[in-house]
Structure formats: structure tokens, C-alpha cells
Predict the structure.
Amino acid sequence: MVELDLKIDFDEEKRLVNISGTLMAVHCHHFNTNLFQSLEDAGYVDGHEIVRGAAEKVAFKQFSTILKTQNPPAVSDKLAMAVELFRILGFGTIKLDGLSDDCTGIAISPISHLCKGWMGKFGKRKEPLCFFTAGFIQGVCEAITGTDLGTFKVVETQCISVGDNTCSFEVNK
Amino acid sequence: MAIGPKEENDIIKAVHSLGIQGDADGIIETFGVLLTNMYADYYNTLSFDYEKEVMKVAGEEMEDICARLLIYAAQDCAVNTVGGIWASPEWEAVVQPHVETKEDVIYGMVAVTNALGWGNWKVIEVVPFKKLVMEAYSPYEALGYVEKYGATAKRGKCYMLEGVVGGFMDLVYPPGTEDKAINEVRPTPGQKDLPDRIENYICVDEELCIAKGDNHCKFIGVPNEEK
């Protein structure tokens, strides 16, 4: 088991937090769910794809940076690092051991910050919620396989926010 | 005892010592809310790609409507999260010893939020129940906008901070509490009616913004005449 070694830096003058090459900001479920709702309800645009694409880009960037300094040979170890990153950042838990060495397969998220936050604030949904998690998985899979953004497509097939026991994702190229 | 630079640095260190990271379930439940260490550019993409896509389809006049929604998201966050922070035992231990007036509460809130990676900002002027002027020097929103689009914005782009300015005033100066002491206004842990305080104040358009080419950002919170 490879232990994830995050580089955390706080710029005293600018008051900015950098975790492994990426600017981060602490925010709550009210902000995260309100933003998602604004995009989802916008009507004029595909808010889900904006969320997914945004998450994919930032996860790809950060995880690529992490792999530059900590790059175990086994894909399973890299996936375990991504699982740990997801947990540490407060996004919930994911299981990526259902992915093969080419990073396709089934991913599970038994606990989701967004689902917990959404249900606490707005209640149960009719449609899956976790476009952020889908984008995160896409980004880390692309970083691990050394492929371009847009290579992976992750679709959520079950979601806690609609009443399922876990969130489940099909991960394909 | 007021909150100056030394006290602010102590508060920031104290917030960082809380170790804001996920527990075994990947959840950060503190201050009565669920927190995340989120990517700044994730928020920037959601805000700026969203408004640009909407404007492309529905016209430039949609910029202010998009801004209003994004600002509301932050004001709701501020009232709930910063309200939770103000009610917390951590505030009691770290910030409360420096608080004598309602204005000190605002300075304390700014000190705490300066630990969260939002960028450096500070209070310029507080007129109780009337006005809150703040300046930001490195907000992640304006920096992210400039990195992606240059300093080309026609209006301020720090939607999150605009909402938080209104949220600070909502929390500290609820209408009708002019004669009440601080502790009568201070929320209690888990207080459910905090959302009732929202949008009694608003931040009028961000007067200066790095995204517009200014060298810092400036916010003015005032009573919401529409409410």
C-alpha cells in the first residue's frame, strides 16, 4: 500500500492554499450544492457537462502533479492513491478496485459529500447528482494512463441522492 | 481587545491546526456544515464557463442574472457556514477572547476566512447596520479569471466574496437588533433559523476588481432595499 504524500502549502501573504500544485479553497455543502443547482437549472446550457468537465480538468492536473513525485509501478497502487485523495479532500469515499489495469470497469462511491449535503439541504432527487465525482474519476484515470483529457467517459448508474445504497459509475474509454 | 494582524495570524494558525480533512468516511463535518477542500479552478470554471455559455445563447444582458445566482450561492454559504463558525466552540476558544463589539465579530470572521484559501482580504470600514467596505488582494476568483481570460471583465468577478460580504452583515446586523447585545445576536450551535437572516444586505457591484484591470478588488455591503 502506497501512502499518499500531499504537498500542502499556505501562502502567508496571499492567503492561498496550494495542494500538490493546485489552488484549493475550503467551502461548505451549501455553496457546493447551490452552485450545482444554479448550473443544473440554468436551462440555456448543459450544466452537468460543465461540472463534469471542470472536475475532470482539475483532478487531472493535480493527480498528474502527484504522479510526478510519487509514481508506483502498479496501477492498483495509483488507484489507491486516488481513493485516498478523494477521502482527504472531503469528497466522501470511492472504491476503484473494480477497475482493471486500463482503468475501465466499475467504480463505487459508498459515501458522497454531495449526496449527503444535497439530501440534507434539498431532500431526495429524481436524477443522479454526482457529475463532480464522475469528472474526478475521468481525470485521475487519464492521469494514471497518460492519456488526454476527454479519453474516459464515466456515467453514474446509481446514486445515493435518488435512494440507492451507493453511487455507482461505469468507467469506459 | 481588537483583532489586528498578530491576532489574525494566531487565528489562522488555530484554524489550520484543526486539520480540515476528511475523516474515515471522507467527510469533514465541522461548524455545523459539511466542508470540502475543493479546487479553486473548479469553482472558477463553474462560474465563468457557465455565464459565458449562457451569454452566448441568451445575450450579454444575462451576465448580471448569472452573477446574481452565483452571489446568492455564496451568501447562503456565508450565513450558514460563517454562522456555524461564529457559534462554534473553536470560535469561543480562539476568536471570542478578542471580541468586544459587533464590529470585532466581522474582523474575526475575516480572519477565519483568510485561513480558508479564498485569498487575502480585509475590512476597510464598518458602519454598523449601514455599510461594510472590504478589499481583496489575491482572491482566487479574480486571479482565475485573469489567468483564463486576461483582465478583460466588464464587471467584478469575485461573486463568492460579494456574497460573503452581504452574508457577514446578515449575520452580525439582523434588522431590528440595533439595541441587542452581541450574545443575543450570536447564533447557537445548530441554530436552524439562520437562513432567515439571508439577503437583508447585499454587496453592491464590486467597484474595483483585478479581473477588470484594477490592482485590487473592493466590495461595499449595504442594506438590501428590495427586502
Q: What stands out?
A: The CA atoms of residues 129 and 173 of chain B lie 6 Å apart.
